[in-house]
Amino acid sequence: MPAPHPACPAGWHVHDIVPHLQMRVVRDMPGLSPALEAEIDRLWAAAQRRMDGRLFNGRVFSADAIAPDHLTGHWTEFRRIVAQMDQPGLFEALRLRPLAVNGILLGPDGVVLGQRPADAVYQPGQWQAPPAGSVDIRSARPDGSVDVLAALFAELREEVGLPADAVHDPRLLGIVEHAGSHVLDLGIALRTRLRAAEIRAAHAAAGDGEYRSLAVIPPADLPGFLAQAGSALAVQTPLFLARMGLLRRGTGTG
């Protein structure tokens, strides 16, 4: 097991990975007891009411095993993930570790950060690095492998309004496992030649509203910005920034 990252808060964990991490589906989604299905139905219905029916019960990759060179797992229902997020104690029965991609986009003017809406289903109101989102079944390949870059580029277009050819040199940074929810954020460094004004214009024209606003922060200003964000800063963000060499480890997590 890799040593804990020095900037990782209690209950969180950073998994070290190789640059060419492989992901593969190795089993079907397991069945659940009627009682557990009923509890998930109850929690899903409550979440749908909170979100005015906007949630979609799609399929998301959940890791069963994590190693430096591979993840293996299965496609699970989003409703199960929402239930485990709402009631972390369900992890003992569900054992879900849903995978998400989290791009850290660096351009000539700095790093792109975005603030999530106050009504988001997860990490509402927090600042994080876009693009980010679940690895859903659109990333499935016929051979059972999972194309995480396809997931990342889909989020880039949907959330930031940028096409895949606007970025270059993707590099895997590590996986941050969230406390409680066991969400796995796969950090991926991205580069762009676009200036801050061009990125903001693309977001304003074609972004899907996943972020209330975008900020482009020069590396020298990151410690101050993250300190000001305080508890509204997503824990995984400074961990990935540190792994890119943009932030001293231990900065920005309180």
From TrEMBL:
Gene source species: Rhodovastum atsumiense
PROSITE patterns: NUDIX (PS51462)
Limits of the Nudix hydrolase domain: 96-240
MF-aspect GO terms: catalytic activity
Gene3D superfamilies assigned: Nucleoside Triphosphate Pyrophosphohydrolase (3.90.79.10)
Sequence intervals crossing the membrane: none
Name assigned to this protein: Nudix hydrolase domain-containing protein
